[in-house]
Amino acid sequence: MAVLTLVGHIPEDGDRAAVLALLDNTSVRDGVVSGETDEANLAELRRLGLVVHSAGVPGTAPEPPLAPPPRHPVAGSLAMPALTDRPKAEQPDYGETVVLRTVPVPPADWASRLADLGSTVLERVGDQRYVVLLPTGGTAAAAALDFVAEVRPYRPGDTADANNVVLPGGPMPGARPVSYEVLAHRAADLPAIRAWLAARGWPEDGAGRRKVRFRCPFGDPGLLELVDRQDVAAVDLHVPPAPLNDHAQRIAGLRPAVPELAGLTGAGQLVGVADTGVDERHPDLKNRLRTVVARGRPGDASDPHGHGTHVAATIAGDGSASGGEFRGAAPGAGVFFQSILDGRGRLGGLPVDLNDLLAEAYDAGVRIHNNSWGADAGSVYRMSSLEVDEFVHEHPDLLVVIAAGNDGRSVAPRHVPRGFVDLFSVNAPATAKNALTVGASRSSRALPDLTWRQWRPDAFPDAPIGDERLGGDAEAMAAFSSRGPCQEHDRIKPDLVAPGTCVVSARSSAAPDSTFWHGWDDNYAVLGGTSTAAPLVAGAAALLREWFTGLGHVPSAALLKATLVNGACWLRGADACADHPHAPNHHQGFGALDLTRTLPAFFTEGRSLRRLGQTARLTLRGVPPGPLRVCLAWTDPPGRGIQHALSLAVRRPDGQRVLGNERRRTTYATADTANNVQVVRIDDAAPGDYAVEVTAVSELLFGPQDFALAVTCGPVDEADDLWKAG
């Protein structure tokens, strides 16, 4: 058995003395402890009450890369030691950026002692790892602090991948410029970066809070100078986003409605939709559209593509042209539509900074915003993902729903068996932590009636997936649906899936037949994609928001997310489980939308944790036998990976704890420090008293951390006053 280094916390009812007796080289702060132990002791430590945050053999875990991975197919794989290994150049009057690692359990005053050196913690990039801005020459003083295990420069290789910025021999004469994006460490750093770009003669396409989009030839030597700036966090090639191309509602539990949802239509809710355009005269939408903004073609918000009309009606179409048969998920909701199709047929109406897109909708009253578009990202947290997280963190009552992407492929898979869809294909901004990311399952309708190989022989050449059909099996995934995880910290995405094949919805009168999978009639057409799954979830969110407000509670985005995830139905299709049959996995996330079991028996939000190791404990007494489900969600500060890690645990009547996301793919049964959505699902809970515990398992450096909980179970004898009854 190996000797492991572990970090964990001992709850109030844990046997502290017995836990510490099994650990060597311990460090303790309040209830948080680190130490070394034999791997054989893990089960006993857990029985004694220790909740393990992390466990591993020292020195075996590689440091995750910080730079965005290669995008450009021409450059190939280049070994560039000069880019990856050396420190950045000094930058007058700025300071030096470093990656600093603390000891596993630093003293409570470590952040203030670091600040006393004139430093600023910019971002958490892993367990006990931070990007820090120090005064020039401050590295030695930081390294001398007793709680600092390591400090190294934030290198050019942390800022960009060589394959994105270097071309052997430089660009060809007359090479056309390509689009890049540069991210500043802080908003205050952006003016100096923009001045540098202007002096270089590289034109801007726009700027946001911390980002500038600019153009220069691929591989221009000046890019290495940009990467070498201390104030630059990342440089990446820009990939333009594109659209992600009734019956489905029955699968998702929207028809027939559960009794508690009867009469709910989304009335009083305003849903934002940013998409190609909208047919304002379509019978299903003309009474649902509240505002239409033409962002891509001045004065023209029409839909010559057809995607936007189909999406908007999936959310809120009232079914007027079909006698109600093809109404949307929330036919009483209003729609604030942002047309982003430009005159070249691209999504040029999207602003450089997505904060601006969301602010326009939010200021109009939107509290649910659907985005059925994205850019290839290979499951990487891109700058657009950061912008979504920024906005939701500052506006925690806005739920942003994003399609996961249609880049699922089964060609030469690296992470799953042959004939199954491979991992790591989620688009951006769908990799945003604070978004609700939606993948696609299959509809029970089969139209067109083709196999995946017939539909896309280049993408799905092998059995079994190649021989399965586009529709007809509601327990299976759509083969094209992008799979997770996110490449930083193995974050779970998608969050949910919903039917995304063979979906009938409104057809724009200006759209060509080529947009659609199949015709239906003059008013409707068949389309598929995660872009048709996402609006189904956005419409379901509008119903839930109406339900919550009917109880006198205005829900946060985190509570809506927790409620939807808590009710998800686990799909049993072979491709939905593939390499990991337990929830959550990287194919279907936490499962498929199912409103028949979504409404919570109890919920709570608004409580805050303020320090590492602090626990909020809420009890449920006299829980009856049967299913018990709990979901924790929180809106995390923006940044790569989880900035404020919380853990969920449910204490059973026998005193043992079930951890949030305990059945995710992991080496040891530890608290989940990588996801801001966590579930406990006990299918056959024993009767008795249960406690739901939420603990801060990382430093909370960016302020108090709120969270939301949703619980489904049978009637209980008594619940803490902190719970609200559903």
From TrEMBL:
<keyword id="KW-0378">Hydrolase</keyword>
<protein>
    <submittedName>
        <fullName>Subtilase family protein</fullName>
    </submittedName>
</protein>
<dbReference type="GO" id="GO:0006508">
    <property type="term" value="P:proteolysis"/>
</dbReference>
<feature type="active site" description="Charge relay system">
    <location>
        <position position="275"/>
    </location>
</feature>
<dbReference type="GO" id="GO:0004252">
    <property type="term" value="F:serine-type endopeptidase activity"/>
</dbReference>
<feature type="active site" description="Charge relay system">
    <location>
        <position position="307"/>
    </location>
</feature>
<dbReference type="InterPro" id="IPR000209">
    <property type="entry name" value="Peptidase_S8/S53_dom"/>
</dbReference>
<comment type="similarity">
    <text>Belongs to the peptidase S8 family.</text>
</comment>
<dbReference type="InterPro" id="IPR051048">
    <property type="entry name" value="Peptidase_S8/S53_subtilisin"/>
</dbReference>
<dbReference type="Pfam" id="PF00082">
    <property type="entry name" value="Peptidase_S8"/>
</dbReference>
<feature type="domain" description="Peptidase S8/S53">
    <location>
        <begin position="266"/>
        <end position="591"/>
    </location>
</feature>
<keyword id="KW-0645">Protease</keyword>
<feature type="active site" description="Charge relay system">
    <location>
        <position position="531"/>
    </location>
</feature>
<dbReference type="InterPro" id="IPR036852">
    <property type="entry name" value="Peptidase_S8/S53_dom_sf"/>
</dbReference>
<dbReference type="InterPro" id="IPR008979">
    <property type="entry name" value="Galactose-bd-like_sf"/>
</dbReference>
<dbReference type="InterPro" id="IPR034058">
    <property type="entry name" value="TagA/B/C/D_pept_dom"/>
</dbReference>
<keyword id="KW-0720">Serine protease</keyword>
<dbReference type="InterPro" id="IPR023828">
    <property type="entry name" value="Peptidase_S8_Ser-AS"/>
</dbReference>
<dbReference type="InterPro" id="IPR015500">
    <property type="entry name" value="Peptidase_S8_subtilisin-rel"/>
</dbReference>
